[in-house]
Write a structure and sequence with these properties.
With 513 residues, the chain is of the alpha/beta class. It has 20 helices and 18 strands. The strands form three sheets. An eight-stranded parallel β-sheet has the order 1-8-2-7-6-3-5-4. Helix 5 packs parallel to helix 6 and helix 9 packs across helix 11.
Amino acid sequence: MSNTVLDSFSSLTLDSILNPEPLQVARHVTATPEEASAITFADFQISDSLKARLTAAGFIHPTPVQAGAIPPALEGDDILATASTGTGKTLSFLIPMIERLNDISAAISAEVSAVGARRGKKTPVLALILLPTRELAMQVLEQFYKICPTQKSDAVLVCGGLSENTQMEQIARGPRLIVATPGRLEDFLRRKAVNLRDVDMLVLDEVDRMLDMGFLPSIRRIVGALPRDRQTMCYSATLDASIREIVKDYVQEPVRVEIGLTSRPSDCVELRVYTVMQDQKLAQLDKMLQEEEGTYLVFSRTKHGADRIGRKLEKLGHQVETIHGDRSQSQRTAALKSFATGRSRVLVATDVAARGIDISNIAHVVNYDLPNGSDDFVHRIGRTGRAGAHGVATTFVTPLEKGDARKLERELKIKFNWHEADKDLAKEERNKPIDLSKPVSGITDLLQLETRSWKSEDGSANEPAAHTPSRHIQRARSGSGNSRSGSGNRSNGSRPHGGNAGRPAGRRRKSRG
């Protein structure tokens, strides 16, 4: 055991465990929309070539989170930022990262020219972005390609659901940037398929959601493999005490960037509630689709529910796509593309699958099922009303759930526009008993086997375990989850400078004495 670890153990006391030191920040930064609109990306201390690429990509004025985070990040400061979903966080870390990568590459080229020390060696991984979902990782990579269209081989996507061999081959070519989800990257790290000891800049995006998804052990193992004198940028939609306690191990005296009220929906979103019976939700949604224009993102609590809602909306004549955790990556990508391009007007999704959705101009978000908590509600609603646009968020509440909806109002300090659904709406036929005295045929009969209610020849109800069809249900519902394990944590203390082969000295612009 190293002396550093022994020293950290010897300094532990009961008081230090029960009352841990609070997160120390260097300073707080805020920016209003008016302040952000008064400047342009050309005002930042970045290279002329990057300014030109941003202009060519259509980026002129920064958003508030970009105006707040980019200047201190360019100076080498760690960043801890909270901002509402859809405020431009991606560009706020990509711009400093691209600028820093160019600086490091220029220093390496100068070293090669001087002594030829790196001749024949591949470029090390210099930057790492960790995100919770494949879709979000893919969208960040697309944004990087938009700014750096000639450097597509310079960045690699590492995530589950895609070919391992292809990703390993791309890593072997020596990209400077890896955009990854924690589970797959931790697996590659354990198998020594990737080397992260030269990473100069780390971004942890959507920290709160990664922790919700159980990625903390993977994150700790990954961060434990990185140099301690790196620059770190953390982004989270919310920052409660538990998240602050975790991220303080990864940042040192960060600049705290706080934009707006992050724990509540945007003021640009109209919040509606319909009190509706469970079996009339589908008819209420159909009515809204017929009466109000625009695209609809519909949230279901379960994968099975998402499939059922999607099928029934299609029967009612709507163009629908569905995404959830059981869909393959190609299916999810195709569904998102269809929705984003307007071929499908409705996208039905579960919370986890929809976390990576970054599609502009979604007119309506519908909570078909009430979310599990206020954080999930905020994340769902954040899919509409992005970048100052108007959006509508509708939540279906059964009479028994009124108290839960009122609790959301109190916790988030918001006010719903309450409506009563039409009592004469058509009722959805669900849980219809199937008569097993007749042969099962066709997809409709098979789908009815989900109902858990059965009829024997005398009409009495039986448990599905007594019948052969239930084995099909069990087989259809079985699945596997990815286990994530790992260890390693970043110890506290000052950052040692240098000591990483192949990187120029003085990589951080600000000294951390």
